[in-house]
Design brief:
26% helix, Peroxisomal Thiolase, Chain A, domain 1, five-stranded mixed sheet
Length: 202
Amino acid sequence: MSATASGFVPGSGSAILVLEDLETALERGAKIYAEVLGGAVNCGGHRMGGSITAPNPEGVRRCIRAAVADADITPGEVEAINGHLTATFADPYEVKNWAAALERIPKDFPYINSTKSLVGHCLGAAGAIESAAVVLQLYKGFLHPSVNCEDIHPDITEYEDKIPRTCIDNPELRIIAKAGFGFGDVNSCLIFKKWENNKRSN
């Protein structure tokens, strides 16, 4: 989201999230970190501004709206966004697509951060790693910073207050939207919710 961003730094790594039906998890006494409320996947196609590396805006917005609908929440309930955000020209467009899809103006826009700013773009592993980051933020009640974006891109300066540059403690954080708008114009969005009935053991 920086004005001087000039492309992503490749990263590497992996993450595993164990998904389980809530009833069976409760029955066996599993330690639950978060819930997946809903999600959506689509392909916007290489048209209307889309390309092999940049999704078309309408496809992105449709994916976000479909995920929110599948989660059975309102757009106003999204408290934070963990974006795709790759330090390319597409970042300002992504922020504006989120605003349009959620119908949120800068004043009430959710916090938005980029895990890639911390670990690089892990390509095929990016979605899993960033989803794990979302789950940990919900479980521990914080938002990690987006680093190296002190000079916010001029097209999104009105959203500057919603881009954490330092870690924010937020124990009341409940819902985060996680997106991946990737190569080939394949879009995905998941809605995660803090598990509120668990007893934490640190």
